Amino acid sequence: MKLDLDRLEKLCREATPGEWWNESEIIHAKADNWTEEIHRCDHICKCLRETDAQIIAEARSALPALIARVREAEKLAGAVKEFEKSCCIEIHEDPLNTWYELTQALAEWEGK
Fold this sequence. Notes:
The structure is a single chain. The chain is an alpha+beta fold. About 60% of the residues lie in helices and about 10% in strands. It has helices at about 5-15, 50-85, 95-110; strands at about 20-25, 25-30, 35-40. A hairpin with a 4-residue loop joins strand 2 (about 25-30) and strand 3. Helix 1 packs across helix 2. The longest helix has about 40 residues, at about 50-85.
């Protein structure tokens, strides 16, 4: 599955804003001055298990922050790749080796 951050951000913008939480038989979605209630079980749809309702509520609340963290990580990864090209270091399979080389190259670069 390809991660489509733009689509996820759009879904977050279009969904009920604010914090979501699961309580009893209801998933609550708190907007600015009102609360939306999503009943976990009714005569039309299959009932959600408690753990399903919990992940829906938790994921909806956490998703904007997670998207921001992924974008920051992607930006950092791009910067590391650019740094690698400009300093002639190699990204290794062993992260400690790479970390050592990055810190050494950064120390040399800052000393210039």
